[in-house]
Amino acid sequence: MASQTPAIPESLPPHELRNALKRTLKETLERMDSDEFVFAQDTLNEEERNAAMIARGGVFRAWRKLNNEDLDAIRDQLVANEPELRTATASLEQSLKDLSKVTQVVNTVNAFLAVATKALTIL
Amino acid sequence: MFDLSRIQFRVARLAVGGLCIAVFMLLAAGCGAARAGRFEAFAAAGTAYTKARSEFLQQSLETYIDRDSLELRRQHAATSLSVSDRQALLNSQDQIVRVRMEIVDDLELHGQVLRQYFTALSRLSASKEDTAAAAAAAKLSGELGKLSASLATKSIGGTPIGNVLGRATGFAVGAFRNRALARHLSESAATIDRELTLEEEALRLLAEEMIADQNALKNDDRRTKVTVPFRAADALPPDWEHDRRFHLLAQANIAKAKAAQDAARQLRLTFESLSKGENDQGGVAALHLAIERLSRFVGNFAASQTPKP
User: Fold this and answer.
1) Do B218 and B247 touch, CB atoms closer than 8 A?
2) Contact B75 A86 (CB under 8 A)
3) How far apart are CA B103 and CA B216, in angstroms?
4) CB-CB under 8 Å, B219 with A56
5) What span, in angstroms and rounded, lies between the C-alpha atoms of B160 and B295?
6) Please, what sign has the CA dihedral across residues B204, B210, B216, B218?
7) E strands, chain A, where?
8) Is residue B250 very low, low, confident or very high in pLDDT (cuts 50, 70, 90)?
9) Rounded Cα distance, B160 and B183, in Å
10) 224-253 of B, contacting A, C-beta below 8 A
11) What would the pLDDT profile of B202-227 be if each residue is shown by its tens digit?
Protein backbone atom coordinates (compact mmCIF):
# COMPACT_ATOMS: atom_id res chain seq x y z
CA MET A 1 0.00 0.00 0.00
CA ALA A 2 1.02 3.65 -0.47
CA SER A 3 2.85 5.42 2.35
CA GLN A 4 0.95 7.71 4.72
CA THR A 5 0.66 11.42 3.87
CA PRO A 6 2.59 13.47 6.45
CA ALA A 7 0.41 15.22 9.02
CA ILE A 8 -0.06 19.01 8.72
CA PRO A 9 1.51 20.96 11.61
CA GLU A 10 -1.18 22.88 13.52
CA SER A 11 1.03 25.91 14.19
CA LEU A 12 1.01 27.13 10.54
CA PRO A 13 -0.60 30.52 9.70
CA PRO A 14 -4.04 30.18 8.02
CA HIS A 15 -2.90 30.65 4.40
CA GLU A 16 -0.04 28.19 4.81
CA LEU A 17 -2.33 25.75 6.56
CA ARG A 18 -4.70 26.04 3.63
CA ASN A 19 -1.90 25.49 1.12
CA ALA A 20 -0.65 22.52 3.14
CA LEU A 21 -4.16 21.08 3.18
CA LYS A 22 -4.47 21.48 -0.59
CA ARG A 23 -1.09 19.85 -1.11
CA THR A 24 -2.04 16.95 1.18
CA LEU A 25 -5.34 16.40 -0.65
CA LYS A 26 -3.53 16.43 -4.00
CA GLU A 27 -0.87 14.01 -2.81
CA THR A 28 -3.51 11.73 -1.32
CA LEU A 29 -5.30 11.60 -4.67
CA GLU A 30 -2.02 10.86 -6.43
CA ARG A 31 -1.32 8.00 -4.04
CA MET A 32 -4.85 6.66 -4.52
CA ASP A 33 -4.20 6.83 -8.25
CA SER A 34 -1.00 4.77 -8.09
CA ASP A 35 -0.97 1.25 -9.54
CA GLU A 36 -0.04 -0.03 -6.11
CA PHE A 37 -3.17 1.42 -4.48
CA VAL A 38 -5.56 0.60 -7.33
CA PHE A 39 -4.50 -3.05 -7.54
CA ALA A 40 -4.51 -3.37 -3.76
CA GLN A 41 -8.14 -2.23 -3.81
CA ASP A 42 -9.00 -5.30 -5.85
CA THR A 43 -8.01 -7.48 -2.89
CA LEU A 44 -10.46 -5.73 -0.54
CA ASN A 45 -13.94 -7.01 0.15
CA GLU A 46 -16.86 -5.20 -1.50
CA GLU A 47 -17.71 -3.08 1.51
CA GLU A 48 -14.14 -1.83 1.91
CA ARG A 49 -13.82 -1.23 -1.82
CA ASN A 50 -17.01 0.83 -1.84
CA ALA A 51 -15.80 2.84 1.14
CA ALA A 52 -12.48 3.52 -0.59
CA MET A 53 -14.22 4.70 -3.79
CA ILE A 54 -16.55 7.00 -1.88
CA ALA A 55 -13.72 8.35 0.26
CA ARG A 56 -11.72 9.11 -2.87
CA GLY A 57 -14.66 11.12 -4.23
CA GLY A 58 -14.78 13.16 -1.03
CA VAL A 59 -11.06 13.94 -1.19
CA PHE A 60 -11.38 14.90 -4.85
CA ARG A 61 -14.28 17.29 -4.28
CA ALA A 62 -12.55 18.91 -1.30
CA TRP A 63 -9.43 19.50 -3.40
CA ARG A 64 -11.48 20.93 -6.27
CA LYS A 65 -13.40 23.26 -4.00
CA LEU A 66 -10.23 24.66 -2.43
CA ASN A 67 -8.74 25.25 -5.88
CA ASN A 68 -11.89 26.98 -7.05
CA GLU A 69 -11.88 29.24 -4.00
CA ASP A 70 -8.27 30.25 -4.64
CA LEU A 71 -8.90 30.92 -8.32
CA ASP A 72 -12.12 32.74 -7.49
CA ALA A 73 -10.19 35.13 -5.21
CA ILE A 74 -7.66 35.85 -7.97
CA ARG A 75 -10.45 36.35 -10.51
CA ASP A 76 -12.08 38.93 -8.21
CA GLN A 77 -8.81 40.83 -7.87
CA LEU A 78 -8.25 40.79 -11.63
CA VAL A 79 -11.76 42.08 -12.24
CA ALA A 80 -11.18 44.78 -9.59
CA ASN A 81 -8.04 45.81 -11.51
CA GLU A 82 -9.98 46.16 -14.77
CA PRO A 83 -11.05 49.84 -14.46
CA GLU A 84 -7.42 50.92 -13.93
CA LEU A 85 -6.26 48.70 -16.79
CA ARG A 86 -8.87 50.30 -19.05
CA THR A 87 -7.72 53.76 -17.94
CA ALA A 88 -4.12 52.85 -18.82
CA THR A 89 -5.28 51.61 -22.22
CA ALA A 90 -7.27 54.79 -22.85
CA SER A 91 -4.26 56.89 -21.89
CA LEU A 92 -2.08 55.04 -24.42
CA GLU A 93 -4.69 55.50 -27.13
CA GLN A 94 -4.87 59.22 -26.36
CA SER A 95 -1.08 59.48 -26.67
CA LEU A 96 -1.29 57.82 -30.06
CA LYS A 97 -3.90 60.37 -31.14
CA ASP A 98 -1.69 63.21 -29.89
CA LEU A 99 1.21 61.75 -31.83
CA SER A 100 -0.87 61.77 -35.01
CA LYS A 101 -1.70 65.42 -34.35
CA VAL A 102 2.00 66.34 -34.53
CA THR A 103 2.19 64.86 -38.01
CA GLN A 104 -1.04 66.62 -38.88
CA VAL A 105 0.45 69.96 -37.81
CA VAL A 106 3.46 69.44 -40.06
CA ASN A 107 1.16 68.44 -42.91
CA THR A 108 -0.98 71.51 -42.27
CA VAL A 109 2.07 73.79 -42.43
CA ASN A 110 2.97 72.02 -45.66
CA ALA A 111 -0.46 72.65 -47.11
CA PHE A 112 -0.39 76.25 -45.94
CA LEU A 113 2.95 76.83 -47.62
CA ALA A 114 1.70 75.24 -50.82
CA VAL A 115 -1.27 77.63 -50.87
CA ALA A 116 0.92 80.60 -49.91
CA THR A 117 3.32 79.76 -52.73
CA LYS A 118 0.51 79.73 -55.26
CA ALA A 119 -0.99 82.94 -53.87
CA LEU A 120 2.29 84.77 -53.91
CA THR A 121 3.03 83.59 -57.42
CA ILE A 122 -0.22 85.12 -58.62
CA LEU A 123 0.46 88.43 -56.84
CA MET B 1 4.84 99.12 -54.51
CA PHE B 2 5.71 96.32 -52.15
CA ASP B 3 8.66 94.04 -52.43
CA LEU B 4 7.17 90.61 -53.26
CA SER B 5 10.39 88.68 -52.74
CA ARG B 6 10.79 90.14 -49.21
CA ILE B 7 7.23 89.09 -48.28
CA GLN B 8 7.87 85.60 -49.65
CA PHE B 9 11.06 85.35 -47.66
CA ARG B 10 9.33 86.54 -44.46
CA VAL B 11 6.50 84.02 -44.84
CA ALA B 12 9.00 81.21 -45.38
CA ARG B 13 11.13 82.37 -42.47
CA LEU B 14 8.08 82.53 -40.20
CA ALA B 15 7.08 79.01 -41.16
CA VAL B 16 10.56 77.63 -40.58
CA GLY B 17 10.90 79.55 -37.31
CA GLY B 18 7.58 78.26 -35.99
CA LEU B 19 8.41 74.75 -36.95
CA CYS B 20 11.84 74.95 -35.32
CA ILE B 21 10.30 76.18 -32.05
CA ALA B 22 7.81 73.29 -32.13
CA VAL B 23 10.62 70.84 -32.89
CA PHE B 24 12.77 72.06 -30.01
CA MET B 25 9.82 72.01 -27.59
CA LEU B 26 9.16 68.44 -28.58
CA LEU B 27 12.84 67.57 -28.21
CA ALA B 28 12.86 69.03 -24.71
CA ALA B 29 9.76 67.04 -23.81
CA GLY B 30 11.38 63.83 -24.98
CA CYS B 31 14.45 63.99 -22.75
CA GLY B 32 15.00 61.01 -20.46
CA ALA B 33 12.31 59.01 -22.18
CA ALA B 34 11.94 55.24 -22.32
CA ARG B 35 13.00 53.24 -25.34
CA ALA B 36 10.20 52.46 -27.74
CA GLY B 37 11.86 49.35 -29.19
CA ARG B 38 11.77 47.46 -25.92
CA PHE B 39 8.18 48.50 -25.29
CA GLU B 40 7.35 47.31 -28.78
CA ALA B 41 8.92 43.90 -28.11
CA PHE B 42 7.13 43.67 -24.76
CA ALA B 43 3.78 44.67 -26.25
CA ALA B 44 4.14 42.20 -29.14
CA ALA B 45 4.98 39.41 -26.69
CA GLY B 46 2.05 40.44 -24.50
CA THR B 47 -0.33 40.26 -27.45
CA ALA B 48 0.96 36.78 -28.36
CA TYR B 49 0.62 35.79 -24.70
CA THR B 50 -3.06 36.79 -24.50
CA LYS B 51 -3.82 34.67 -27.56
CA ALA B 52 -2.03 31.57 -26.23
CA ARG B 53 -3.48 32.20 -22.76
CA SER B 54 -7.00 32.08 -24.17
CA GLU B 55 -6.37 28.66 -25.77
CA PHE B 56 -4.72 27.43 -22.59
CA LEU B 57 -7.73 28.45 -20.49
CA GLN B 58 -10.04 26.50 -22.76
CA GLN B 59 -7.80 23.44 -22.76
CA SER B 60 -7.44 23.51 -18.98
CA LEU B 61 -11.22 23.58 -18.69
CA GLU B 62 -11.67 20.63 -21.05
CA THR B 63 -9.11 18.62 -19.08
CA TYR B 64 -10.82 19.70 -15.85
CA ILE B 65 -14.18 18.32 -17.01
CA ASP B 66 -12.64 15.09 -18.32
CA ARG B 67 -10.94 14.49 -14.97
CA ASP B 68 -14.18 15.24 -13.18
CA SER B 69 -15.99 12.65 -15.30
CA LEU B 70 -13.25 10.09 -14.60
CA GLU B 71 -13.69 10.60 -10.85
CA LEU B 72 -17.47 10.28 -11.20
CA ARG B 73 -17.04 7.07 -13.18
CA ARG B 74 -14.91 5.63 -10.37
CA GLN B 75 -17.45 6.56 -7.71
CA HIS B 76 -20.25 5.20 -9.87
CA ALA B 77 -18.60 1.76 -9.53
CA ALA B 78 -19.38 1.68 -5.80
CA THR B 79 -22.17 -0.88 -5.47
CA SER B 80 -23.44 0.51 -2.18
CA LEU B 81 -24.75 3.74 -3.68
CA SER B 82 -28.47 4.30 -4.02
CA VAL B 83 -30.08 6.16 -6.93
CA SER B 84 -30.39 9.30 -4.81
CA ASP B 85 -26.74 8.97 -3.71
CA ARG B 86 -25.66 8.84 -7.35
CA GLN B 87 -27.86 11.80 -8.21
CA ALA B 88 -26.38 13.76 -5.29
CA LEU B 89 -22.82 12.94 -6.40
CA LEU B 90 -23.53 14.05 -9.95
CA ASN B 91 -25.18 17.28 -8.75
CA SER B 92 -22.33 18.01 -6.38
CA GLN B 93 -19.60 17.61 -9.01
CA ASP B 94 -21.64 19.39 -11.68
CA GLN B 95 -21.85 22.33 -9.32
CA ILE B 96 -18.07 22.41 -8.83
CA VAL B 97 -17.55 22.28 -12.60
CA ARG B 98 -20.06 25.09 -13.14
CA VAL B 99 -18.19 27.28 -10.67
CA ARG B 100 -14.96 26.59 -12.55
CA MET B 101 -16.59 27.33 -15.92
CA GLU B 102 -17.80 30.66 -14.60
CA ILE B 103 -14.33 31.57 -13.30
CA VAL B 104 -12.65 30.58 -16.57
CA ASP B 105 -15.26 32.54 -18.50
CA ASP B 106 -14.49 35.64 -16.41
CA LEU B 107 -10.75 35.12 -16.88
CA GLU B 108 -11.35 34.85 -20.62
CA LEU B 109 -13.33 38.11 -20.63
CA HIS B 110 -10.63 39.74 -18.58
CA GLY B 111 -8.09 38.52 -21.11
CA GLN B 112 -9.82 40.68 -23.71
CA VAL B 113 -9.20 43.76 -21.57
CA LEU B 114 -5.57 42.74 -21.19
CA ARG B 115 -5.31 42.19 -24.95
CA GLN B 116 -6.70 45.69 -25.59
CA TYR B 117 -4.02 47.08 -23.31
CA PHE B 118 -1.22 45.27 -25.15
CA THR B 119 -2.70 46.29 -28.50
CA ALA B 120 -2.73 49.96 -27.47
CA LEU B 121 0.82 49.70 -26.13
CA SER B 122 1.91 47.99 -29.33
CA ARG B 123 0.28 50.63 -31.56
CA LEU B 124 1.94 53.46 -29.68
CA SER B 125 5.39 51.89 -29.32
CA ALA B 126 5.44 50.62 -32.91
CA SER B 127 3.91 53.81 -34.33
CA LYS B 128 5.46 55.01 -37.58
CA GLU B 129 4.29 58.57 -36.96
CA ASP B 130 7.89 59.72 -36.51
CA THR B 131 8.69 58.50 -40.05
CA ALA B 132 5.51 60.07 -41.41
CA ALA B 133 6.26 63.36 -39.69
CA ALA B 134 9.85 63.32 -40.97
CA ALA B 135 8.62 62.78 -44.53
CA ALA B 136 6.09 65.58 -44.16
CA ALA B 137 8.73 67.95 -42.77
CA ALA B 138 11.19 67.08 -45.53
CA LYS B 139 8.48 67.93 -48.03
CA LEU B 140 8.49 71.43 -46.57
CA SER B 141 11.78 72.09 -48.28
CA GLY B 142 10.09 71.87 -51.65
CA GLU B 143 7.47 74.39 -50.64
CA LEU B 144 10.08 76.65 -49.08
CA GLY B 145 12.07 76.52 -52.28
CA LYS B 146 9.08 77.81 -54.17
CA LEU B 147 8.67 80.66 -51.70
CA SER B 148 12.25 81.65 -51.45
CA ALA B 149 15.06 80.44 -53.64
CA SER B 150 17.65 81.73 -51.18
CA LEU B 151 16.10 79.90 -48.22
CA ALA B 152 15.94 76.66 -50.14
CA THR B 153 19.64 76.81 -50.79
CA LYS B 154 20.48 77.42 -47.12
CA SER B 155 22.07 74.66 -45.13
CA ILE B 156 22.82 73.85 -41.48
CA GLY B 157 26.20 72.24 -40.90
CA GLY B 158 26.48 71.48 -44.60
CA THR B 159 23.10 69.69 -44.70
CA PRO B 160 20.26 71.21 -46.74
CA ILE B 161 17.59 72.79 -44.53
CA GLY B 162 14.89 70.41 -45.84
CA ASN B 163 16.85 67.37 -44.68
CA VAL B 164 17.55 68.96 -41.28
CA LEU B 165 13.86 69.67 -40.81
CA GLY B 166 12.95 66.13 -41.76
CA ARG B 167 15.39 64.54 -39.34
CA ALA B 168 14.63 66.90 -36.47
CA THR B 169 10.88 66.51 -36.83
CA GLY B 170 11.12 62.72 -37.03
CA PHE B 171 13.31 62.64 -33.96
CA ALA B 172 11.05 65.03 -32.07
CA VAL B 173 7.94 63.00 -32.82
CA GLY B 174 9.79 59.86 -31.72
CA ALA B 175 10.80 61.64 -28.53
CA PHE B 176 7.19 62.69 -27.96
CA ARG B 177 6.17 59.02 -28.24
CA ASN B 178 8.94 57.96 -25.85
CA ARG B 179 7.81 60.61 -23.42
CA ALA B 180 4.26 59.25 -23.60
CA LEU B 181 5.55 55.73 -22.87
CA ALA B 182 7.61 57.00 -19.94
CA ARG B 183 4.55 58.82 -18.61
CA HIS B 184 2.54 55.64 -19.03
CA LEU B 185 5.07 53.82 -16.85
CA SER B 186 5.00 56.41 -14.11
CA GLU B 187 1.19 56.52 -14.09
CA SER B 188 0.29 52.87 -14.60
CA ALA B 189 3.26 50.75 -13.48
CA ALA B 190 1.52 49.69 -10.25
CA THR B 191 -1.65 48.68 -12.13
CA ILE B 192 0.22 46.64 -14.74
CA ASP B 193 2.49 45.07 -12.15
CA ARG B 194 -0.53 44.02 -10.06
CA GLU B 195 -2.22 42.70 -13.19
CA LEU B 196 0.76 40.59 -14.22
CA THR B 197 1.34 39.28 -10.69
CA LEU B 198 -2.28 38.11 -10.51
CA GLU B 199 -2.01 36.63 -14.00
CA GLU B 200 1.02 34.64 -12.95
CA GLU B 201 -0.75 33.33 -9.86
CA ALA B 202 -3.88 32.38 -11.82
CA LEU B 203 -1.88 30.52 -14.46
CA ARG B 204 0.23 28.81 -11.82
CA LEU B 205 -2.92 27.39 -10.21
CA LEU B 206 -4.42 26.40 -13.56
CA ALA B 207 -1.20 24.79 -14.81
CA GLU B 208 -0.71 22.81 -11.59
CA GLU B 209 -4.25 21.53 -11.75
CA MET B 210 -4.03 20.77 -15.45
CA ILE B 211 -0.88 18.71 -14.89
CA ALA B 212 -2.58 16.78 -12.08
CA ASP B 213 -5.68 16.23 -14.21
CA GLN B 214 -3.73 15.07 -17.22
CA ASN B 215 -1.68 12.71 -15.08
CA ALA B 216 -4.84 11.17 -13.62
CA LEU B 217 -6.42 10.78 -17.07
CA LYS B 218 -3.30 9.27 -18.62
CA ASN B 219 -2.71 6.99 -15.63
CA ASP B 220 -6.15 5.51 -16.01
CA ASP B 221 -5.67 4.90 -19.72
CA ARG B 222 -2.14 3.54 -19.24
CA ARG B 223 -3.29 1.16 -16.52
CA THR B 224 -6.01 -0.24 -18.77
CA LYS B 225 -3.93 -0.52 -21.94
CA VAL B 226 -0.42 -1.19 -20.63
CA THR B 227 -0.26 -2.28 -16.98
CA VAL B 228 -3.27 -4.59 -16.67
CA PRO B 229 -2.43 -6.63 -19.84
CA PHE B 230 1.18 -6.93 -18.74
CA ARG B 231 0.29 -8.14 -15.23
CA ALA B 232 -1.88 -10.86 -16.72
CA ALA B 233 -0.31 -14.12 -17.94
CA ASP B 234 -2.26 -13.91 -21.23
CA ALA B 235 -0.64 -12.91 -24.50
CA LEU B 236 -0.18 -9.16 -24.82
CA PRO B 237 -2.47 -7.26 -27.23
CA PRO B 238 -0.85 -6.52 -30.64
CA ASP B 239 -0.81 -2.75 -29.99
CA TRP B 240 0.76 -3.10 -26.56
CA GLU B 241 4.23 -1.73 -27.54
CA HIS B 242 2.64 1.18 -29.34
CA ASP B 243 0.41 2.02 -26.37
CA ARG B 244 3.32 1.79 -23.95
CA ARG B 245 5.47 4.14 -26.04
CA PHE B 246 2.55 6.56 -26.43
CA HIS B 247 1.97 6.73 -22.69
CA LEU B 248 5.60 7.11 -21.72
CA LEU B 249 6.08 9.95 -24.22
CA ALA B 250 2.78 11.57 -23.23
CA GLN B 251 3.84 11.57 -19.59
CA ALA B 252 6.92 13.59 -20.48
CA ASN B 253 4.75 16.19 -22.25
CA ILE B 254 2.27 16.68 -19.43
CA ALA B 255 4.69 18.76 -17.35
CA LYS B 256 5.02 21.19 -20.26
CA ALA B 257 1.72 22.78 -19.18
CA LYS B 258 3.93 24.70 -16.78
CA ALA B 259 4.82 26.82 -19.84
CA ALA B 260 1.70 28.89 -19.10
CA GLN B 261 2.95 29.88 -15.68
CA ASP B 262 6.47 30.48 -17.02
CA ALA B 263 5.17 32.79 -19.76
CA ALA B 264 3.13 34.82 -17.26
CA ARG B 265 6.10 35.10 -14.91
CA GLN B 266 8.46 36.17 -17.71
CA LEU B 267 5.94 38.80 -18.79
CA ARG B 268 5.90 40.23 -15.27
CA LEU B 269 9.70 40.14 -14.96
CA THR B 270 10.15 41.91 -18.31
CA PHE B 271 7.69 44.60 -17.28
CA GLU B 272 9.52 45.10 -13.98
CA SER B 273 12.74 45.49 -15.91
CA LEU B 274 11.10 48.06 -18.23
CA SER B 275 9.79 49.97 -15.23
CA LYS B 276 13.25 50.16 -13.73
CA GLY B 277 14.67 51.39 -17.04
CA GLU B 278 17.00 48.42 -17.29
CA ASN B 279 18.32 47.43 -20.70
CA ASP B 280 17.39 43.79 -20.25
CA GLN B 281 17.74 42.31 -23.73
CA GLY B 282 18.12 38.84 -22.21
CA GLY B 283 14.80 39.26 -20.44
CA VAL B 284 13.01 40.14 -23.68
CA ALA B 285 14.60 37.11 -25.38
CA ALA B 286 13.55 34.88 -22.46
CA LEU B 287 10.02 36.31 -22.71
CA HIS B 288 9.80 35.45 -26.41
CA LEU B 289 11.06 31.95 -25.70
CA ALA B 290 8.58 31.43 -22.85
CA ILE B 291 5.65 32.55 -25.01
CA GLU B 292 6.84 30.41 -27.88
CA ARG B 293 6.85 27.40 -25.52
CA LEU B 294 3.34 28.20 -24.36
CA SER B 295 2.14 28.57 -27.96
CA ARG B 296 3.80 25.26 -28.84
CA PHE B 297 2.21 23.58 -25.83
CA VAL B 298 -1.32 24.72 -26.69
CA GLY B 299 -0.72 23.80 -30.35
CA ASN B 300 0.47 20.30 -29.46
CA PHE B 301 -2.32 19.85 -26.95
CA ALA B 302 -4.94 20.79 -29.55
CA ALA B 303 -3.35 18.40 -32.04
CA SER B 304 -3.31 15.56 -29.51
CA GLN B 305 -7.04 15.78 -28.85
CA THR B 306 -8.97 13.17 -30.81
CA PRO B 307 -11.85 14.87 -32.58
CA LYS B 308 -15.07 13.76 -30.97
CA PRO B 309 -18.08 12.96 -33.18
Assistant:
1) yes
2) no
3) 23
4) no
5) 50
6) negative
7) none
8) confident
9) 35
10) 227, 231
11) 999 999 999 999 999 999 999 999 99
Please list the alpha-helical segments (H only) found in chain B. Answer: 4-29, 36-76, 83-125, 129-147, 149-152, 161-222, 228-231, 240-254, 259-275, 281-304
Q: How far apart are CA B203 and CA B209, in angstroms?
A: 10
B198 to chain A, any CB pair closer than 8 A? The answer is: yes
Answering whether pTM is above 0.80, one says no
B3: nearest CA partner in chain A: A123
Give the ipTM. 0.79
Type of residue found at B62: E
**Which chain B residue has the Cα nearest residue A85?**
B191
Nearest CA in chain A to B217: A33
Q: How many CB atoms lie within 10 A of CB A52?
A: 18
Chain A stretch 82-101, residues whose beta carbon is closer than 8 A to a beta carbon of chain B: 82, 84-89, 91-93, 95-96, 98-100
Rounded distance between C-alpha atoms, residue B9 and residue B26, angstroms: 26
